[in-house]
Amino acid sequence: MIEDKIVISLGGSLIIPEEIDVEFLKEFRDLILSKISEGKKFVIITGGGKICRKYNKAAEEISSVENDELDWLGIYSTRFNAEFLKVLFGQNVSKDIIVNPNLPLLFDKSIIVGGGWKPGNSTDLVATLIAKNVGAKTVINLSNTDYVYDKDPNKNADAKKIEKISWAEYRALIPAEWNPGLNSPFDPIASKMAQEEGMTVMTMNGKPINNLANALDGKDFRGTTIH
Question: What CATH code is assigned to 5-226?
Answer without folding.
Answer: 3.40.1160.10
